[in-house]
Design goal:
This protein is α+β, with helices and mostly antiparallel strands. The chain is built from ten helices and seven strands. The protein has three domains: 37 residues, no CATH class; 130 residues, no CATH class; 81 residues, 2-Layer Sandwich (Alpha-Beta Plaits). Strands 3, 4, 5, 6 and 7 form a five-stranded antiparallel β-sheet that branches. A two-stranded antiparallel ribbon has the order 1-2.
């Protein structure tokens, strides 16, 4: 055997020994190039303090990105809430990985996070006066907790990618709907309701926000506790036309006049 062959055999044996300690994902990403390494498990690429810090920062960024969109729409779960949810999921996941022995099922912590976050998401959903609001915020809370679990497992880049997808679904899906289903055709409907100390108007505003509708004529008093408002909404798409049914379900709404198409 020549000296060159002996050297090559020694190098290949060393590489095989190192590869035995790496996960399949780390091997694949490493073969794709050094720039792809960060898309794998950070716990296999960085020492414990550095990987934990990277996952923590990724949780703040991922939760904050979704929280900014909710804050911009003045939803109850804003930036601080979403960051805490994502960060809490990361902490629980890291604690499960560090404290649980390798022989046990470490996915139990993730299962408890999923079940626990359901109570928090349900708390964001409110039913009042026959109207259910906050479903989208509850779903966003659930999704952010799942992102925290992914980041806590070490896949920070994947968690940030999921955060971008959730942000797009919350903020840009309206633009995509208009492209696929066509532009809205606008109609007007006149609603007469009982004020009830301003509570009915607040519920109507929640309905308008859910269905992307606006006031065409501002609320004005009719007689004592009775007020009337004209609402502009889309009558072309089925899920937008459901606005009228939601308004009819409010207990203090007295009359809804038939809408008429007023243009595009």
């Amino acid at each position: 055997m020549s000296i060159e062959a002996a050297i090559c055999g020694t190098v290949l044996a060393g590489l095989a020994a190192d590869s035995a300690h790496l996960s399949p994902s780390a091997l694949v990403l490493g073969a794709m190039g050094p720039n792809w390494g960060w898309f794998g498990n950070l716990r296999e690429m960085l020492p414990a303090p550095a990987s934990g810090l990277a996952c923590t920062l990724a949780a703040v960024l991922g939760g904050g990105l979704v929280g900014i969109e909710r804050e911009r729409r003045e939803k109850p779960a804003g930036v601080r809430t979403m960051v805490l949810i994502c960060l809490g999921a990361v902490i629980y996941t890291e604690a499960g990985l560090l404290l649980a022995p390798e022989s046990t099922d470490r996915s139990r912590v993730a299962a408890q996070v999923v079940s626990g976050i359901g109570f928090l998401g349900a708390g964001a959903i409110i039913q009042q006066g026959g109207l259910v609001v906050g479903v989208t915020t509850g779903a966003a809370i659930w999704a952010v907790a799942a992102i925290g679990l992914v980041i806590g497992a070490g896949y920070a880049a994947a968690g940030l990618a999921f955060s971008l997808i959730v942000f797009f679904m919350l903020s840009g899906i309206g633009w995509l709907e208009r492209r696929l289903a066509g532009e809205c055709e606008w109609s007007q409907v006149q609603v007469t309701y009982r004020r009830d100390g301003g509570k009915t108007l607040a519920l109507i505003e929640d309905v308008l926000e859910e269905f992307v509708a606006t006031f065409s004529v501002a609320p004005h008093a009719m007689d004592g506790e009775i007020e009337r408002v004209v609402i502009r909404f889309c009558s072309r798409h089925k899920h937008h036309r459901a606005l009228v049914a939601q308004l009819a379900g409010l207990s203090n709404v007295l009359q809804i006049e038939d809408p008429g198409v007023v243009g595009k």
